Every structure is written in C-alpha cells, then in structure tokens.
Amino acid sequence: MKRILSYLAIVTLVLLTACSVSYKFNGASIDYTTTKTIQIADFPIRSSYVWGPMGPIFNNQLKDVFANHTRLQQVKRNGDLVIEGEITQYSQRNKSVSSEGHSAQTELSITVNVRFTNNKNHNEDFERTFTASKSYETTKSLNSVQEELVTQMCKDLTDQIFNATVANW
Predict the structure, then answer these.
(1) What is the pTM of this model?
(2) How many CA atoms lie less than 13 Å away from 76 in the CB half-sphere?
C-alpha cells in the first residue's frame, strides 16, 4: 500500500510540474511568434492652445506603456505594429458654477487622433480619437495644477490607446 501511495504521489507531482498555466495581467493579447516590433511615432501638437511640455510627456508615456507591458521591440520604421497620430486638442472649460454665479470648477481636456496599423493583420487597423479630462477648483491657478493634471490625462490616454491596440478588449 505504501508503495502504491508513493507511486501515485510521484505521478501526481510529475503531472503537476509538466502542466503550466499562463496568465497575463497586463491585458496584452499579442502573438509574439508573428508580431515582434512596434513603431511609435512622436505625436505633434496640432492644437490651437498649447502647453509645451505636454508633447514630450505624452510621447514618453506612450512609448513607456508598450515597453513596460509588452515584449515588442520598438523600432524607427517598418514595425509590425505602427502607432502614429497627433494631439488635436488641449482645452479648458467651465465645468460647474457656484451659488454666487461664478465658475467653481474648470475641466482641462486633451484629445489625440490615433492611426493604428497592424501589418500582420490589417483587419485590426483603425483611426480613432481618444479624450481624457480632469477637473480642478477654479480657486487654483492653471499653472499650479497643469503638470499634474496633464500627466494624469496622458496616463489615461496611453492606457486607452494600449487597450485599443493590443489588449483587444
């Protein structure tokens, strides 16, 4: 009986180590056997209202999200996946009014136009706009909150672009 139990334990152990389950927590669904490279162009600012550091913040975050969450090699040209576009709008507007009739909150927003090309499967190609916005109290100046809000909106935009291009949700 001991011998049978030992044999069953060894067989169970071998089976458990031979099987593997793979989970991807970053949401990417990329076939790395066919898709190995990504080309991410810098997005120029084509908005009438501009804050200079916004372009580099967005472009760096977009490249970082793909570097950190995929195994794709970033290339300058001829990528299996190609992401390009432009920042088309950067604006602010009054969001709410106080009981005295003055603006209480201002909403800041960024819109980007994205062209995605999957050179391995052109059925996934698209051109789409993505928008992110954040609000701040009008008692604060835009200069005091702009960097933090733009960084948060760029993070939101890059997550939206990542999900639309390689997460296939």
Answers:
(1) 0.80
(2) 0
